[in-house]
Specification:
By secondary structure, the chain is α+β, with helices and mostly antiparallel strands. Strands 3, 4, 5, 6, 7, 8, 16, 17 and 18 form a 9-stranded mixed beta sheet that branches. Strands 9, 11, 12, 14 and 15 form a 5-stranded antiparallel beta sheet that branches. Strands 1-2 form a two-stranded antiparallel sheet. It contains 12 helices and 18 strands. 35% of the residues lie in helices and 21% in strands. The radius of gyration is 23 Å and the shape is globular. Bound molecules: (2S)-amino(hydroxy)ethanoic acid and manganese (II) ion (2 copies).
């Protein structure tokens, strides 16, 4: 049994049309009008496939295909919200490949033992409303839905109001139904598979994430008349911190990464010493202890530079998730399924956050990766070769069917299935 690759690729193109931006990418920030339009299109496809669609109180959408016996579903999915410079595949592939699995089983007239479900989770990116993976965090019981509803976006909107505005403040309760298992297909978004010339990744886990917003308050002053010793330059404090982040990360070494993605100055004028600077720092590492040490060193630097520049500083935590290890049985199942297609799956951790890391809190979870050309993502140029997209969908299909048919999740290591049906 194989997915209909043409149908999957066409749907990826159709969805990418919504919020399309030059260069082949799309911009569908969470709970924006573009996100609503994307949601409406995918929900229509889900209903046309005969799936039972539910929307929960944080806007997560789950479409379920009945099994022969009732009970917890084998779940797949991802997200369809994007960053402002998003590509066509980040998140979208996992949702549309999951839908393709359902369509393929429909075409084959097959009903799996357990129900199957495909979902898309609200605000996975966290770019508009922090933290990221918010919908799946609430689904897994990691945050109360009322708390989530009161989150304010970077453009000043309240999450609960935006959910209601786009018509996705749904009746289904949070936390959501606990699946039998969860498997997410996603593009790697990094260079590992592409560089190695490999097609399938069996993801071992996800690195820890630390997001902070720093606000330095100094004193606006004249850029020409104010001697340097008299300045309280918030812009300098922020710039020095951005440079420190780069030094810190190179001192710690891989896999530590650090990013200053946002940096706003006020009044943001050429001849005024900045009175205020607001910036974000994104630190990640697969090792929780090293990540904590990096956070400590950053905090020390921030205190020192604020004191030496005579500015005040406040810190706001935007996201903090520890590293997650996926279920070894699911990792082995992905490997064995890939081997059945003749692919030697590479084991690797995920550098990006994913909804699977939240589902891993409540059920056995894992991920399937396919290569990102040049490792480029969060960029309209994001690209995965069509045959790799289809290969990932076929590995997802057979991994899900195996989880839906077996009494229990097979113990690792598994013999590769010879020549899949
Ligand atoms: O930030 C991330 O890793 C993900 O794209 N939300
Ligand atoms: Mn993603
Ligand atoms: Mn992303």
């Amino acid at each position: 049994m194989r997915v209909d690759g043409d149908r999957l690729l066409q749907r990826l193109r159709d969805l990418a049309e919504i919020g399309a931006i030059p260069g082949g990418g799309c911009a569908r920030l969470a709970l924006s009008d573009e996100d609503r339009a994307g949601r409406d299109l995918v929900v229509m496809w889900m209903r046309d496939a005969g799936l039972e669609v539910t929307v929960d109180a944080i806007g997560n959408v789950v479409a379920t295909r009945k099994g022969q016996v009732p009970g917890p579903a084998v779940m797949c999915g991802s997200h369809i919200d994007t960053v402002a410079t998003g590509g066509a595949y980040d998140g979208n592939l996992g949702v549309l490949a999951g839908l393709e699995v359902m369509e393929t089983l429909n075409d084959a007239g097959l009903t799996t033992r357990r129900p199957l479900a495909v979902g898309f989770f609200t605000d996975e990116e966290g770019a508009r409303f922090a933290p990221d993976m918010l919908g799946s965090l609430v689904y897994a019981g990691g945050m109360g839905v009322e708390t989530a509803h009161d989150i304010i976006s970077i453009d000043g909107a309240r999450l609960g109001d935006e959910l209601a505005r786009i018509g996705y403040l749904g009746p289904a309760p949070c936390p959501g139904l606990v699946p039998h298992a969860y498997v997410e297909l996603h593009i790697e978004q990094g260079p590992v598979l592409d560089r190695a010339g490999e097609v399938i990744g069996a993801v071992t886990g996800i690195q820890g994430i630390s997001w902070q917003e720093l606000t330095f308050e100094g004193q606006a002053n004249h850029a020409g008349t104010t001697p340097m010793a008299y300045r309280h330059d918030a812009g300098y404090a922020a710039a020095a911190t951005a440079a420190f982040v780069r030094r810190l990360v190179s001192d710690i070494g891989p896999p530590q990464v650090g990013t200053v993605g946002r940096l706003d100055l006020h009044p943001d004028l050429v001849n005024v010493v900045a009175a205020r600077a607001t910036m974000t720092v994104d630190l990640r590492n697969t090792d929780e202890q090293v990540l904590q040490a990096a956070e400590k060193r950053l905090a020390q630097h921030v205190e020192e530079v604020a004191r030496s520049e005579g500015v005040s500083v406040s810190t706001r935590r935007l996201a903090r998730f520890e590293p997650v290890e996926f279920d070894p049985r699911v990792i082995a199942l992905v490997e064995a399924t890939a081997a059945g297609f003749g692919y030697q799956a590479r084991r690797l951790p995920a550098g990006a956050g994913h909804d699977a890391q939240m589902l891993a809190r409540v059920c056995p979870a894992g991920m399937v990766f396919v290569p990102s050309v040049g490792g480029v993502s969060h960029n309209p140029a994001e690209h995965t070769d069509p045959e790799h997209l289809v290969a990932g969908a076929n590995v997802l299909l057979h991994t899900l069917v195996r989880l839906a048919e077996e009494d229990r999740i097979p113990q690792a290591p598994l013999p590769p299935e010879g020549g899949l049906r």
